[in-house]
Design brief:
With 764 residues, this protein is an alpha+beta fold. The chain has 18 helices and 33 strands. The two termini are 42 Å apart.
Length: 764
């Protein structure tokens, strides 16, 4: 029996306001923790944006053009200049004159050096920056090769460049008294090929001189041997020759004619064959050629027309041909007129060209104009130093203008990174990744499209394998399996997520890939028969009499299914070789019969190469890594659906399967979708499995039996080769940014869809 509260009782109790007032220390702790959480959250946001900003700051230089600024001028001695050159430091340029002298400019200049014999005058000059030599054609039918040498010494902490020039050899290529109109020399280090155009304007001939060097015991070149008699090539060149080029392999000669044709002559020993005649500007009203010069590597020729069109022709194998010939690969922005001067970089595929008062710096691989400007003077000659950081221009008053060049990433840009590029030797423009090569004239191939494609391809096959298993497994575990079994199965699957990626990659490369390589038909049968048998057994089980089904408690059906599925899997594995012998056969290359080999059959059927480490292996192993993540989150979402919804559906007569598919899964769709997106993000960012199990081939092929290279794997593979601040270094940062953007976009879209599904199927 309750008693009334007396006034005395009320006097001993605290006022209501005091009893429900929060303790001051609790308020202080709450405020402090709230502030810490806010600061922490803000710090995370700031950190993410700082990382994003740092990555962007690293990649912005990839999309900048070149900057060129005048560093000073040098006055050259008076006289008719025929060629200019410069040392690799850009400090001691020289000018070659029509009187057979060479003058070095800069500190310590000591006047002109005579490099030709007395009484002989040059009629044409060809400067080779790669070998630092001048080939001077003379008025008496000889070619004099003038060597330019530089040496650097340090005195009192300052660098002093010493320069000298000397005519080392004279080659007789034409009759005495017949002047040379154009000259070129190619020196492979073994063979040497010299070519010249002789004669007057009315009658000209093309002559070649081949010198072969015998190899010494240690591989060094010995004395020159072979023919020293000039070879007349005039009959191979229809038209009037005006200019010629010799490649640095001493294998071929390109002859430009007044009629607008280019003749490609190839050397075989001491004999020449005409492999090709082509008209670079045959489609224009005026088909004449204004200039013709080689790019670094002497595989591509840069040509301009009298009206300023600028095109590049490269050697490659045309469809159906067994020999390389020239074809147009690039069309660059037009110049205001013909090219009057040209200089190719010896560090990359960049070249400088002048036309009137316009000076332009261009890049051959991507056909980009890196820099172009109208100068206050009209240059007559141009040269680039070996370091590709200085350029020199000679004006009409023999004043040499030294320019500083800052172009650290000429091989990059929007087109190089995201567009199709026609690389040297390739029959067509394509996306390609190959960051390094074995020679100085290699063209870096930095297409991010291959890596984006590989990332999508690997993710697709991984999700194709993982999603059905993980989602159906989660549905069965949450809706049909007994709770006692679920308490074991779910933690076991979650433990799978803790397996290191490097271990999974190792297993994929060393165990799974060799296993699948010889049993592809067995794997295909497993993929077909296991799901089919599972559906068949389930369909049959649902139609069995209740007295048989009741022998297993609800949630224990898998005990009856597992032996059947194991038997089907075992049978499919054994049946694979029989199917291979019956279906996947090809003619025996060593006999008249047929052999069973799926790999050879696939190559003949699809035309694609079968690789041991392929997308199928990646799909299986990366899918194995993704399954636990999708399964766990999806199972949690399904298990958290209110029991009242299940009970209501079952009470209305729906089966357990109908309840799961029509009620539980739609209600939990937001959580299931989140599981898929998190698994997708895991697959996109996977590195070690892809590195070890795919062969890292950056190809554009969706074939499941070919390899791939993803953005994350590319960063891991290429990072040791990337020097800080270099093009590859910044390109890897671009790959990281693309990964960041991909995951950001996917997560954003996923969150929007998740919220939509949550609102659509929310329960009150």
């Amino acid at each position: 029996m309750e008693r009334d509260v007396t006034n005395e009782d009320r006097a001993g109790m605290a006022p209501p306001a005091e009893r429900f007032r929060t303790v001051r220390s609790t308020l202080i702790v709450d405020r402090v923790m709230t502030g810490i959480i806010k600061i922490g959250g803000l710090g995370i946001i700031v950190t993410v944006f700082a990382i994003f900003g740092f990555i962007v700051w690293q990649i912005v230089p990839l999309f900048r053009g070149a900057s060129v600024a005048e560093a000073g001028t040098m006055q050259a001695p008076p006289g008719k200049a025929m060629a200019i050159g410069i040392d690799e430091w850009g400090e001691r340029p020289f000018v070659a004159y029509a009187d057979g002298t060479v003058a070095f400019l800069g500190a310590g200049s000591d006047g002109r050096t005579t490099v030709l014999p007395e009484g002989v005058r040059p009629t044409c000059v060809h400067y080779d920056l790669r070998t630092q030599s001048l080939a001077m054609g003379t008025d008496d039918g000889t070619i004099v090769r003038v060597g330019i040498s530089y040496s650097a010494e340090f005195a009192d902490g300052k660098r002093v460049i010493t320069a000298s020039a000397s005519g080392d050899e004279a080659l007789r290529i034409g009759p005495k008294g017949v002047p040379l109109v154009a000259v070129a020399i190619g020196d492979s280090g073994g063979d040497k090929l010299a070519a010249a155009i002789l004669g007057t304007t009315g009658k000209r001939s093309v002559m070649a001189l081949v010198l072969e060097h015998e190899e010494g015991l240690l591989g060094s070149a010995g004395a020159a041997s072979g023919s020293t008699e000039p070879i007349d090539l005039t009959s191979l060149v229809p038209g009037t020759p005006e200019r010629l080029l010799v490649d640095d392999r001493a294998e071929s000669i390109l002859v430009m004619t007044r009629e607008g044709d280019v003749c490609y002559l190839f050397r075989q020993g001491h004999a020449f064959e005409r492999r090709q005649i082509f008209a670079p500007f045959g489609d224009l009203p005026v088909r004449a050629i204004a200039s013709m010069d080689y790019l670094l590597g002497d595989v591509s020729a840069v040509l301009t027309s009298p009206t300023g069109e600028n095109r590049i022709f490269s050697l490659y194998y045309h469809p159906g041909a067994d020999k390389r010939t020239f074809g147009q690969t690039k069309e660059l922005a037009a110049l205001p007129g013909p090219a009057l001067g040209y200089a190719a970089s010896t560090r990359n595929k960049a070249f400088a060209v002048i036309s009137g008062s316009i000076a332009s710096l261009r890049y051959g691989t991507t056909a980009q104009v890196r820099w172009q400007k109208a100068l206050p003077f009209e240059p007559s000659a141009v040269t680039i130093n070996g370091k590709y950081d200085r350029m020199a221009l000679l004006d009409g008053e023999n004043r040499l203008h030294l320019m500083t060049v800052h172009d650290p990433h000429p091989e990059a840009g929007i087109r190089a990174l995201f567009g199709k590029v026609w690389y040297e030797g390739a029959p067509e423009a394509k996306f390609e990744w190959q960051s390094t090569g074995g020679s100085d004239d290699f063209e870096p191939k930095l297409s991010m499209v291959n890596l984006l494609f590989g990332t999508i391809k690997g993710t697709f096959y991984a999700m194709l394998f993982a999603v059905p298993i993980a989602i159906l497994g989660a549905v069965y575990t949450a809706e049909f399996m007994r709770p006692s079994y679920r308490s074991v199965i779910k933690p076991t699957v979650e433990i799978m997520a803790s397996l290191p990626s490097v271990v999974l990659g190792f297993l994929a490369a060393q165990w799974l890939a060799p296993l699948i390589e010889n049993r592809v038909p067995s794997v295909l049968l497993l993929i077909i028969l296991l799901p089919a048998s599972a559906f068949t057994v389930g369909w049959g089980w649902s139609r069995m009499p209740m007295r048989w089904r009741s022998r297993l408690k609800p949630g224990q059906e898998f005990i009856a299914f597992l032996p059947i599925l194991a038997l089907v899997a075992w049978g499919a594995w054994l049946l694979g070789p029989l199917v291979e012998r019956a279906v996947f056969t090809v003619p025996d290359p060593h006999g008249g019969g047929r052999i069973a080999d799926f790999r050879m059959w696939w190559e003949s059927f699809s035309g694609a190469k079968f690789e041991q480490r392929n997308s199928l292996v990646v799909g299986f192993m990366m899918g194995f890594a993704v399954i636990p993540i999708i399964f766990t989150i999806a199972e949690d979402a399904l298990s958290n659906v209110p029991r009242a919804l299940r009970s209501g559906s079952l009470a209305l007569g729906a089966s357990r399967w109908q309840t799961a598919m029509s009620v539980v899964v739609p209600t939990a769709s937001a959580g299931v979708f989140s599981a898929l997106m998190i698994g997708l993000g895991r697959a996109i960012g996977e590195t070690m499995i892809v590195v070890m199990a795919t062969g890292n081939t950056p190809i554009m092929d969706f074939d499941i039996f070919n390899g791939l290279r993803t953005l994350s794997a590319n960063i891991a593979v290429e990072l040791p080769e990337a020097s800080e601040g270099g093009t590859l270094y910044r390109t890897l940062f671009l790959g990281a940014l693309l990964l960041f953007l991909m995951t950001f976009v996917i997560n954003t879209v996923a969150e929007v869809l998740r919220q939509h599904l949550r609102e659509k199927y929310k329960t009150s």
